[in-house]
Specification:
By secondary structure, the protein is α+β, with helices and mostly antiparallel strands. It contains 5 helices and 12 strands. It has helices at about 1-10, 60-75, 210-215, 220-230, 240-260, and strands spanning about 20-30, 40-50, 55-60, 90-95, 100, 110-115, 125-130, 135-145, 145-155, 170-175, 180-190, 210. Helix 4 (about 220-230) runs antiparallel to helix 5 (about 240-260).
Length: about 270
């Protein structure tokens, strides 16, 4: 039994024979004080039909990790792509009956694997439109502080979608929140045959698994970094220490003011 548990824990690291890759354009506004500044990133949902398992993350994140792995095999030490905006990973198992959120894998602290047990209640309407050649139907839900409108297609009978969205009787092709500051639009649907898959980077075997409730109560990552540096006592003088405290506090405050529009307004 112990060996079986070990195998199941590391199953996300295995290579699967074939998958379908759904590629989306993710547009978002980080700072509602400057709503005209819109960021976008190509994100992917890799779905493994046989295993009923999917992985979602940024395409740059996949490429960056893959490049670093190949470089390390050649004895080359490379760094993650600094332009990558979406570094987290969302894993759904058994069509969303199990869902895990993995924090970024390029931080001093171990990756957190958060078991997200929240479920989405959908209201399906009769409204329809064509998206990427598929007949799509409108549905709405309220999740993590935002009202979302989705368009899904039963022509792709996979109850999944970008980010954590799932549970409709077909693939979500498009989803946008009511403030129009977060949206996912499908770009392509392709069979995926690749030698590299999400969660292969060597930081993931060291993940620390926690439940959503514990994640909700965690302090800000920048505040954790501040506490860690102060605890390590690496400063050469008190002036140096006070300068660090002023700088990091200013960064935290600036982040609170300008990075004010996360995809989840609250974690409950």
């Amino acid at each position: 039994m112990k060996n079986t548990s070990f195998i199941l824990f590391f199953l996300p690291l295995l290579y699967f024979s074939q998958s379908i890759r759904f590629t989306y354009n993710y547009e978002f506004v980080s700072d509602t004080l400057t709503r005209d500044v819109v960021s976008n990133e190509t994100v992917v949902l890799d779905y493994f039909k046989k295993e009923q398992r999917s992985f979602f993350t940024g395409l740059k994140h996949i490429i960056s990790d893959s490049t670093m792995i190949e470089d390390s095999k050649k004895g080359i030490h490379s760094f993650p792509d600094g332009s990558t905006k979406i570094r987290y990973v969302v894993e759904k198992i058994n069509n969303g009956n199990l869902m895990y959120f993995y924090t970024t894998n390029h931080m001093p602290d171990p990756v957190l694997k958060v078991n997200d047990e929240r479920r989405m209640k959908w209201e399906i309407t009769n409204e329809q439109e064509k998206i990427l050649g598929y007949l799509a139907q409108k549905a709405t839900t309220f999740f993590a502080g935002r009202q979302w409108t989705a368009w899904f297609t039963t022509e792709i009978s996979i109850p999944d979608g970008p980010y954590k969205f799932h549970g409709l009787p077909g693939l979500i092709l498009k989803i946008v929140d009511e403030t129009q500051t977060h949206s996912f639009d499908i770009i392509s649907v392709k069979n995926q045959k690749s030698s590299y898959y999400i969660l292969n980077e060597n930081a993931y075997p060291k993940v620390k698994q926690i439940v959503q409730k514990d994640y909700e109560n965690m302090p800000d990552p920048a505040e954790l970094f501040k506490q860690k540096v102060l605890a390590d006592g690496i400063f050469h003088s008190n002036d140096e220490k006070q300068t660090f405290i002023r700088d990091i506090d200013a960064q935290i405050e600036k982040s609170k003011i300008h990075d004010n529009n996360p995809i989840e307004l609250y974690k409950k």
